[in-house]
């Protein structure tokens, strides 16, 4: 299978869709899956497989993500994309993560998100991109604000993480705002 890539200055962004998941889980062995997803353990691969088997899409909701591959090594260092894409509403929720903490605060995610947002509006034809961020996650708050997202609300006890119900701040970026900022 040929994987679609887009490039940033320092990375190849490998496009991953439900079809790619099907292909890799049907053809790759455990070691190849671990390398492909950039996981550090077989337990992480097992969890990825459970998510895949339990269904990643519905009739009107799917995902599109990109693996962040270092240009010089090809190593998977994280992912960024849209994990909740409501196809019939032309809106999606942005997510991003770096798996190697030593790579944080180097501008890699800002570089990636700019390209993923462009892809969302120009290729996927989204009208709205959303982000839900913990009020405690200062780096993520700065990141989305730097990408022209506007805070729209505060959801109390919105996510359950590490056995705690956490609040989320709601951010949105509309196609019109994105296009105006590009001028």
Model description:
There is one protein chain. The protein is an alpha+beta fold and 183 residues long. The protein is built from six helices and eight strands; from the N terminus they run E-E-H-H-H-E-E-E-H-E-H-E-E-H. 34% of the residues lie in helices and 37% in strands. It has an eight-stranded mixed sheet with strand order 1-2-3-4-5-6-8-7, with helices on both faces. A hairpin with a 2-residue loop joins strand 7 and strand 8 (164-174).
SSE diagram, text form:
Elements (H helix, E strand, L loop, with lengths): L4 E3 L3 E6 L1 H10 L2 H8 L4 H13 L6 E10 L5 E11 L4 E8 L9 H15 L5 E6 L4 H9 L3 E12 L2 E11 H8 L1
Parallel strand pairs: 5-6
Antiparallel strand pairs: 1-2, 2-3, 3-4, 4-5, 6-8, 7-8
